[in-house]
Amino acid sequence: MFDNAKTKYASDHPMGSAQPKAIISVPVDEDTSRETALAAARAADDRKADNILVLRVSEVSYLADYFVIVTGYSQAQLRAIYQAISDQVELELQRLPLRIEGQSDGNWVLMDYGDVIIHILLPEERDFYKLEAFWGHAERVHWQS
User: What is the pLDDT of residue 105?
Assistant: First the structure.
């Protein structure tokens, strides 16, 4: 089973702001993982992402507990979606991603929270990689209120 991590940046280092921010990992439970995925889906929806899908992959993969897969229609929208997700998850759950890839000029932005991996793709990339088909045996999670 995947070793989940809750991530925070330690900005109050005793040596002051000249020191790099450290990543602090704290175990998270299933509820926190689920709430992270749901908060990401809602934030993506607020930025008009399309075809939002939340998959519970913990039973079929050791990579993460949840995948969130969304479509954006321009690189600017991909950036807006990733920023909205980052802000919302930090606000609701005090979590920051371990890594974000592709945010500057990519057609696929990947946000890795350890236990939750968020894929924000342009339609062409989503059609090409077919992540939901690859992970089709995972449980689909209803995320809308």
Answer: 75
> Nearest Cα to 90, choosing from 30, 43, 145?
43
Secondary-structure breakdown of the chain: helix, strand, coil percentages, each rounded to the nearest 5: 30, 30, 40
| Tens digits of residue pLDDT in 54-109 | 999 988 888 899 999 999 999 999 999 999 999 999 999 999 999 999 877 779 99
Structure tokens at 120: 């924000």
What does the block give as tokens for 48? 């008009």
- Phi-psi category of residue 81: left, alpha or beta, with phi > 0 → left and psi -120 to 50 → alpha: alpha
Contact residues for 32 (Cβ-Cβ < 8 A; gap 6+): 4, 6, 93, 115
Q: Is the pTM of this model over 0.85?
A: no
DSSP characters over 35-94: HHHHHHHHHHHHTT-EEEEEEE-TTT-SS-SEEEEEE-SSHHHHHHHHHHHHHHHHHHH-
Q: Which is nearest to 138 in space by CA: 28, 43, 33, 53?
A: 53
- Mean pLDDT, the chain, rounded, equals 84
